[in-house]
Each structure stands twice: as C-alpha cells, then as structure tokens.
C-alpha cells in the first residue's frame, strides 16, 4: 500500500474518533514502517497550570490511538482492533507550549492479535517522552462497532 493510501486510511480512522477530534490530533506521516500522529499543545490538555506541562492522560490517549491506528499500515483491509493491553513508560515530562508526536509500528501480526510498539517525542525522536508497547485484538474485517462478539467456548477452554 502506498504512503498516500496509508495516510488517507489513517486520517479517516482518526476523524471517526470524537475524543481525537476534540484534542485536535492529526496524522503527521504514515508508511509501511509505521504511523506518526501529532497532538497539538493546548491549554485544555495541561495537567499542571503552574508549569504548563501536558497531562499524562493526553499522552496516553495519543499513544493508544497511534498504536491502534498503526494497524492500517499492515492490514490489507480495515479491521476493528480494540486495545487489549497498553504499557507506557514515561521518560520525562513534555515541554510546555510544544506539540507532541507519537510514532507506532506493528512488529508482529497474528491471526488474533497485533503487537505494537512506539514512542512519544517533541523535537527529537531520539529523546522520547515515553515508550509504549500495546496489543490489539483482531476482530475481523466484518466486525462492526457496538456489535456483540460471540465465541464458541464449549469444551471449557478460555
């Protein structure tokens, strides 16, 4: 898939997420290696009014969204892939008055789970604000948001 097609798919996906619209998130770049989103700095996401530092929840939202949407870089067709697990290690606070970028890549795709990793940064990707690792459940291309998930659990297995 071309970079243009990946960016277009990611932009459509992002535009369907109301909380991302409110935060002003935008697709910055995308290709077969991964996806970068931008979280613009604003007063609404400041966690400490005395310092102007962005709230960690906004960074978490950026990274969860970036990892989740990075699935469009590797899947041939759109699938709903909800977050199973997300781990974020914060390295240092974001600098006030600067946008934050989130990069994520899918490093393993199985029949049921997609494994992602990435980082948040401002000026230099080599100086990350946070590192992230996430797993996302593949529900298939025919899954719909809000539709019940049914699984055959006969036989006592989990």
What features would you highlight for this structure?
single chain, 158 residues, alpha+beta, Thiol Ester Dehydrase, Chain A, six-stranded antiparallel sheet, two-stranded antiparallel sheet, globular, Thioestr_dom, HotDog_dom_sf, hydrolase
Give a written overview of the molecule.
The protein is α+β, with helices and mostly antiparallel strands. β6 and β7 (113-121) form a beta hairpin. The protein is globular, with a radius of gyration of 16 Å. Strands 1-2-6-7-8-5 form a 6-stranded antiparallel beta sheet. A two-stranded antiparallel sheet has the order 3-4. The protein contains 3 helices and 8 strands, in the order ααββββαββββ. Residues 146-158 have low confidence and may be disordered. It has one domain (3-137): Thiol Ester Dehydrase, Chain A (Roll). One of its GO terms (molecular function) is 1,4-dihydroxy-2-naphthoyl-CoA thioesterase activity. InterPro entries: HotDog_dom_sf, PAAI_dom, Thioestr_dom. Residues 52-127 form the Thioesterase domain. Keywords: Hydrolase.
Task: Give the topology.
Blueprint: H1 3-15, H2 18-23, E1 26-31, E2 34-39, E3 46-48, E4 53-54, H3 56-69, E5 83-90, E6 100-109, E7 113-121, E8 130-137
Antiparallel strand pairs: 1-2, 2-6, 3-4, 5-8, 6-7, 7-8
Domain Thioesterase: 52-127
InterPro entries: HotDog_dom_sf (IPR029069), PAAI_dom (IPR003736), Thioestr_dom (IPR006683)
GO cellular component, one term: cytosol
